[in-house]
């Protein structure tokens, strides 16, 4: 199957699709023949994304930390398209840069509410629909930080470790259901999330990458879109590094 036809007739839901990795994935799926439903909490990003992505992109404001809202959005997407073929969970936050002993408790809860609980709700409701249809591809965005832990980023590191564990568990649960569930573990990709980090922290992250550069949005989208496509048929419950050589295990 030619790359340009990979998503023909398929519908994907992309969370955090108004910017960054999510936007890049949505654009590529559309370019390869698919239809996309973008979920994002920022109305301005949604408006800008739909204006630039075209008629085959639909958008909905979704707060992924609200389970009822995610359930309604899933039902609407299924009703409109008949099914959801792929889910890419890109919504997430980095949280503040601080040592664990000084980490604000409220911020800890916020990071987990978005990165873990929100991803769980999306996986839960969309996977249920996919299982009923006997087909689906789920791609969760974890991080290399979830494998090795970044100093002064305990909430982010721990939340991404949870994403990895959830992905492995759900992949095993659905292995015979036609639903593949995988994650990617990027090193630093230049996205709007970096705006939440200090210059010193950014420099430290770059220094850990053997290629001595950050990953690009196109590189992330290429791997994610393979995992979200029909071509990914024997990989599930797996975590794929995108780290410029910074892989650990």
What does this structure look like?
- This protein has about 250 residues and is α/β, with parallel strands linked by helices.
- It is built from 8 helices and 7 strands; from the N terminus they run βαβαβαβαβααβααβ.
- The chain is about 45% helix and about 15% strand.
- The chain has a 7-stranded parallel β-sheet, with helices on both faces.
- Strand 4, helix 4 and strand 5 (about 135-140) form a beta-alpha-beta unit.
- The chain starts with 10 loop residues before the first strand and ends in a 7-residue tail after the last strand.
- The model has no long low-confidence stretch (mean pLDDT about 95).
Residue stretches low in confidence (pLDDT < 50, at least 5 long) are none
The largest beta-sheet arranges its strands as 3-2-1-4-5-6-7
Task: Report the principal-axis shape.
Answer: globular
β-sheet strand percentage: 15-25%
**Count of DSSP-assigned helices:** 8
Distance between the termini: 32 Å
What can be said about the biggest beta sheet? 7 strands, parallel
The helix content is 40-55%
The count of strands amounts to 7
Structural class: alpha/beta
How many whole angstroms does the radius of gyration measure?
A: 17 Å
Q: Mean pLDDT, as a whole number?
A: 94
Q: What series of H and E elements makes up the topology?
A: EHEHEHEHEHHEHHE
Précis, in short:
With 249 residues, the protein is α/β, with parallel strands linked by helices. It contains 8 helices and 7 strands; from the N terminus they run βαβαβαβαβααβααβ.
